[in-house]
Automatic annotation (TrEMBL):
Signal peptide: none annotated. This is Iron uptake protein. Pfam families: DUF3649. The chain crosses the membrane at residues 21-44, 50-71, 78-97. Keywords: Membrane, Transmembrane, Transmembrane helix. It comes from the Bacteria.
Length: 102
């Protein structure tokens, strides 16, 4: 039964679409959140201004991630690209993890 489903092209297409939707919503949110935190730390502005600019840019980033996920060659490449947000998350959240956030 499972082998028959695995070889079915319709089932594979549904799985691909489901993985892309999950990557766009869940992964896109994580990527945008990490990117926003990194931009808020790295922008050479006052803290309030950096947070406001990075929050406004988050809408464009999230939209770009959603478009990119559905334009990627495969769902696995989309997830791999979203996994690249880990360095952004480290930049954005590392000082705050240990209570020494500036």
């Amino acid at each position: 039964m499972i082998r028959r489903l695995r070889d079915n092209p319709a089932w594979q297409a549904r799985l691909d679409i489901g993985l892309r939707v999950a990557a766009a919503t869940i992964g896109g949110y994580f990527f945008t959140y990490a990117c926003t935190a990194a931009m808020a730390r790295l922008l050479p502005l006052a803290r309030f201004d950096a947070v406001m600019v990075s929050s406004l840019l988050a809408f464009a980033v999230y939209t770009a991630v959603i478009v990119w996920v559905f334009a990627a060659a495969s769902a696995w490449r989309a997830w791999l690209g979203i996994a690249l947000a880990l360095p952004l998350a480290i930049i954005g959240f590392w000082p705050g993890l240990f209570g020494s956030g500036a």
